[in-house]
Amino acid sequence: MSRKRTVYSAEFKSKLVLEVLKNEKTLQEIASANNITPKNLQNWKKIFLDNAEIAMEPSKAVKDYKEDLLAAQEQNEMLTKIVGKMTVEKEWLEKKLKSLDSSDRKQLIEPKLNTLPLTQQCALLGLNRSNLYYKRKN
Prior knowledge:
Distance between the termini: 72 Å
Helix content: over 70%
Radius of gyration: 31 Å
Low-confidence stretches: none
């Protein structure tokens, strides 16, 4: 039977890490007193020390976060514009291609094209795939 994973609060983790950093008790003593593994304490201590600069300069972390957010928003807007433009172009091409005669549309099919399957090519051109294999008897 599986055990449910214990989730510890950030407050609890930081309290224990600060206790470890005081060096009044060993890592093993703190871990056993709180019924956790020493490896957890080591990981929490590493995370705590890696992110200590955020506590000293919170405005820098917020500034970096805002810059990253703005860059992501700009990229999202650019990609949205590109997708919109390509959608309009695709719809226009589909209308033009469907206005062609079916024999002309059949000639546009490329059976050996790896990037676009035959079924999708037929769907885009408005052709029934079985018509590709049908040969008329004269």
